[in-house]
Design a protein that fits this description.
By secondary structure, the chain is mainly α. The longest helix has 30 residues, at 211-240. The chain folds into three domains: 23-96, Multidrug-efflux Transporter Regulator, Chain: A, Domain 2 (Orthogonal Bundle), CATH 1.10.1660; 123-179, Multidrug-efflux Transporter Regulator, Chain: A, Domain 2, CATH 1.10.1660.10; 182-245, no CATH class. The protein has nine helices and four strands. It has helices at residues 23-30, 39-47, 65-81, 85-96, 129-136, 140-148, 163-175, 185-206, 211-240, and strands at residues 54-55, 61-62, 126-127, 160-161. 52% of the residues lie in helices and 3% in strands. The chain has a two-stranded antiparallel ribbon.
């Protein structure tokens, strides 16, 4: 039997049920404690290796009581401690190896405990205009055109985020195929919409009273950004009928 971080036995509505459950039954079993959970969320956690339900010969998922307990534990760690999936996975793996696995000190503090010191936001790496032009191998006319289409935007004071070098290099590479900056406005609009979606997801963390929780919003935004980029790439490949390395 798996154990909680405190060493006690895991418990829950599904623990007493030795039979296998469908994903719909798992959803119903969890919804009292986790009303926001969805089938898509359960499938996503499976794809990330947090749970491994059995499969019937026809491909349907079947969850054991232990699977449901593990799933509930993952959801609690996300809800109560705002831990990223990588940290949760490492924590659970350590528990299964029988190692001492204290819960990482991220997220909410217990009542009576002092609030953790807020994490310092990483400084934004900046480059000057001349440095950007040299790194991208373009002239000022090109950069002004890219700025006019919103592909690159200077920061306050006239410097640029270091990521602007990557954007400039990619715009230049696409130009060799005849794709002009004006053609890339649709990509910029799509990126802005994706960023807006991520902002909506992390907004509750950013508004939280706990400074540590607000700092964790940055890590959650990065995780979501990686997932949206992967999805975007997969959708483009699928639309083109390509299988890229």
């Amino acid at each position: 039997m798996r154990q909680t971080p405190s060493g006690g036995a895991w418990h829950g509505t599904a623990a007493a049920d030795s039979g296998l459950m469908s994903i719909g039954a798992v959803l119903n079993a969890l919804r009292d404690e986790f009303p926001e959970v969805t089938i898509s969320k359960i499938r996503f956690l499976e794809s990330e290796g947090l749970i491994e339900p059995q499969r019937t010969p026809s491909g349907y998922r079947k969850f054991s009581a232990e699977d449901v307990e593990r799933l509930g534990h993952v959801l609690r760690m996300q809800r109560d401690h705002y831990l990223p999936l990588k940290v949760i996975r490492e924590h659970l793996d350590a528990m299964e190896r029988g190692e001492a696995a204290p819960l990482p000190a991220v997220g909410r503090q217990r009542d009576g405990e002092p609030a953790p010191a807020p994490a310092e936001a990483p400084a934004v790496a900046r480059v000057g205009r001349a440095e950007l032009l040299a790194a991208a191998g373009v002239d000022d006319t090109d950069l002004r055109e890219w700025e006019s289409y919103g592909l690159i935007t200077p920061l306050e004071g006239g410097a640029y985020d270091a990521e602007a070098i990557t954007v400039a290099s990619l715009v230049t590479a696409l130009g060799r195929f005849g794709i002009e900056p004006r053609h890339l406005r649709v990509m910029k609009a799509a990126a802005d919409r994706e960023a807006g979606l991520i902002d909506q997801v992390v907004a509750p963390l950013r508004r939280h009273r706990n400074p540590q929780t607000r700092a964790h919003a940055e890590a959650r935004a990065r995780e979501l950004a990686v997932l949206t980029v992967k999805l975007h790439a997969a959708l483009v490949q699928t639309a083109l009928g390509l299988r890229l390395p």
